[in-house]
Amino acid sequence: MKNTVGQVHRGDNFFPREDLINKIYNKLDAEAHLYLAAPRRMGKTAIMRRLEDQPRNGYEFHYLITESINHPVVYLEELVKTLQRFNTWNDRTFQFIKEWLPKLRLSFSESESEAGLVLEQHRDPFEKFKAFIKELDTNGHKIVVMIDEFPQTVENISRKHGADTATQFLQFNREIRQLANPNLRFILTGSIGLYAVAEKLEATQTLNDLNTLEIPPLSKSQATALVTQLLDEVHVAYQPEICKQLPDRIGFHPFYLQLAAQELIDEFESTGRTIEASAIERAFNNILRRRNDNYFEHYHQRLKTVLSDKDFPLALAILSTLAIQEHGLNSSQIQELATPHTEANLGFILRSLEFDGYLFENQNADTKIYHFTSPILREWWKRRVVGV
Length: 388
Known about the structure:
Radius of gyration: 23 Å
Largest sheet: 5 strands, parallel
Distance between the termini: 37 Å
Strand content: 5-15%
CATH superfamily of the largest domain: P-loop containing nucleotide triphosphate hydrolases
Structural class: alpha/beta
CATH class of the largest domain: Alpha Beta
Shape: globular
Number of domains: 3
């Protein structure tokens, strides 16, 4: 497989994660709607594209990214256009979709001038869609709409049209999932936590029909195999233990392992010398050069947008303290940090930081220990945000 850093890996460049793909099919076979929970750069999009490119018999998948959408009617229009791409509809369904798209465009043009409760002002197309979705005929096939960056869309709508409209948007999506033919399923995912977004809107009840599947980091054996494949693809000469040692230093996120592997490839191509264990630390430090800040800066920037003025200082304090504490922070230490921040919502902050991929909770005996999700992210935060 080629090391196409920053690109979605498809075809021969997809690193097989059959364990996760099997879990997805098992849940879809049980007629579940799914939420794929994982932070940025964990390979969610590649998995969805794999499902789309190589579906099992009886299945058809199509991918829709909604990251830039900030209007419910635009979202609905894109959803209908995605449904139009499926090949398994009968003639009646194809005709309905064809006739319905111009009506949606008209509805959107009429609603552009006013913000506010968009779903209330333009309820007709949404009600028609709910009636339509119950009647879809898939000819016995399972069709799956995969919506990427759905949580970001909810946030966009909330910012432009207000929390009430965002909540109604979540309610609408829940209704269509409940009304849908059992052979029409939805998979939602995104780089930010959907449950944290819904909690902020006090709308978590709109998600209680979703079956959550976590996309974890790679296992040790998977990480070793990934590094081996990346180095072998370009015929790098390396000591065998490199492929096992690199994940221990870099972490088990696929993207960060790709960055590190590329550093090793670059070193080999520059020197022609066999890559030894000492190269791992050089790769680690090279990743943290300012030329790679674009891979990490969004973590810092996002805090300022997702958290209130009351919550942001405590979140920053927790992450900055974690960055200089190699062995993590326990619950008591977190509570201690929270003491001066009397108006901050500690529970919401911790859930948000976990959902959005900053930290994870490791249960150690009777004590919760919080760590950064990646050694690379921790070190970047330490150098760039804390300034150590």
